[in-house]
Write a structure and sequence with these properties.
This protein is of the alpha/beta class. The chain has one domain. It is about 30% helix and about 10% strand. The strands form 3 sheets. Strands 3, 4, 5, 7, 8, 9, 11, 12 and 13 form a 9-stranded mixed sheet that branches. Strands 2-1-10 form a 3-stranded parallel sheet. The two termini are about 35 Å apart.
Length: about 450
């Protein structure tokens, strides 16, 4: 049971202690101990060459202990995915100090209390706020069997990079909802469409793609990974303001533990960090190497997005706190990297499987003005799916209802970004509005 909040809105000191106790209780030991892991070599593959790998069904091969094993296999072995398990009813947040600290900002405490109150009205949910000084011990305990991940976390040159990475790591290992502290819930958590599926289970006809083979047994799965649209800028200068034309939100994410999409994102960030920095932490880790057939520029953050063709940036330059800029943050751990990981995983699903259920009711129905709906791009979307086995970004533009691809649910922009006043975002009073981001932006000064 969570402690009651008094009338003045103060959380008793016991709250902080209970949160820490909860975190420690949740930790589990893994079969691969630290003494063994430092004795073998880790191969760090890239995530840009997965055409022949079924990421959804990937199973780590059996290898002898103290042998060479790649990082994807280590992650899959330590955190196997069970799509039949429900999403854990847990909310994760982080801040610099514990919730009961006198240094905890009053405004941030107010936001945290709104989550706590929402949890009290949502059956079976619990809450954990992890302060900065508990993050590394937590990761060392959880990811002790995958030491290269901890090595990469320590090597990240800026706090915001670590904050981004931590949210992916905790959801991959434990699952639940992660939401930035400058957010507030707008609906009871049990009313989210990922939990209450009545609104999205109805699909008259699944959307076909080139490899698709329809069967009578295909039914919509309970979502295992839930995200929202952050930005859908329909303007020619979009790339001056956003990392991607369709940008997925990563200030609020819901996931089952072990989801393969998060595995690939963690692999990408770890590989990029090991290839883009020289700093190595104190945590013992085995030697690692990159596959010889993969160009080293695949692992360099200076070879991402706009910097790839900019002569002033060298792919061999190692990153430090002084030379890591906003573009690096976007494409290393931020919404650029996150959006790329989502699209890459979804495309891999339909490239390597013939039974992926795709539901997008935004492309159906009658509309007097298709220019304001996803149907505006119906032909381009259909050609991409049925001729090329890939999703165009337009598949997710202008959506008003949740989109489901296998067990990945994409919510409309209003769900996690209401009240922004453009890009089709609705009001925080809309039925589909679930979380409001207050845009405090504390990380920008770090």
């Amino acid at each position: 049971m969570l402690p009651k909040i008094n009338k003045k809105g103060r959380v008793p000191a016991l709250m902080g202690a209970m949160v820490l106790i909860f975190v420690i209780i949740q930790l589990k030991s893994f079969s691969v101990t630290r003494s063994l892991t430092i004795k073998f070599k880790t191969i760090v593959p890239t995530t840009s060459h997965t055409e022949n790998i079924n990421l959804k069904k990937f199973k780590p091969p059996d290898v002898p202990v103290r042998s060479v094993e790649d990082l994807r296999s280590q992650l899959a072995k330590q955190f196997p995915y069970n799509p039949l398990e429900p999403i854990p009813r847990r909310v994760w947040q982080t801040w610099k100090c514990p919730l009961d600290s006198p240094e905890f900002p009053a405004k941030a405490r107010k936001y945290a209390q709104e989550w706590i109150q929402s949890i009290k009205h949502s059956m079976g949910y619990d809450y954990a706020l992890v302060p900065d000084d508990r993050i590394m011990p937590l990761l060392q305990n959880i990811y002790g069997g995958v030491p290269q991940v901890i090595q990469a976390f320590e090597a990240l040159p800026l706090p915001i990079l670590k904050a981004d990475f931590f949210r992916y790591l905790i959801l991959y290992a434990r699952g639940g909802i992660y939401s930035d502290l400058d957010t507030v819930p707008l609906k009871t958590l049990t009313d989210w469409p990922s939990v209450n599926g009545a609104s999205w289970l109805v699909a008259e006809t699944p959307i076909k793609y080139k490899n698709f083979k329809a069967t009578d047994s295909q039914v919509a799965q309970e979502p295992g990974f839930v995200i929202g649209i952050e930005a859908d800028p329909d303007r020619p200068d979009w790339n001056e303001h956003y990392a991607r034309r369709i940008q997925f939100c990563q200030w609020t994410i819901q996931s089952k533990p072990g989801h393969p999409l998060l595995r690939e994102l963690i692999l990408n960030i770890t590989a990029t960090t090991l290839g883009s920095t020289v700093a190595r932490g104190k945590y013992p880790a085995p030697k690692f190497e990159f596959p010889k057939e993969i160009p080293l520029q695949d692992y360099s953050i200076n070879c991402r997005d706009k910097k790839l063709n900019d002569a002033q940036f060298s792919c061999n330059e190692k990153k430090t706190p002084k030379n890591t800029d906003h573009a690096d943050i976007m494409n290393w751990t931020g919404p650029g990297a996150f959006s790329d990981a989502v699209m890459a995983y979804l495309n891999n699903l339909i490239h390597t499987n013939d039974d992926i259920l795709i539901i997008n009711n935004n492309m159906k129905g009658d509309s007097s003005d298709d220019s304001s709906t996803t149907k505006k791009f119906y032909r381009k979307i259909t050609e991409g799916l049925q001729a090329g086995n890939f999703f165009q970004w337009e598949f997710f533009t202008l959506i008003k209802e949740p989109v489901v691809v296998d067990d990945v649910m994409v919510l409309p922009i209003t769900s996690f970004s209401p009240d922004v006043g453009h890009m089709g975002s609705g009001s925080s009073t809309d039925e589909i509005a679930l979380v409001k981001h207050m845009f405090e932006g504390s990380w920008k000064g770090e």
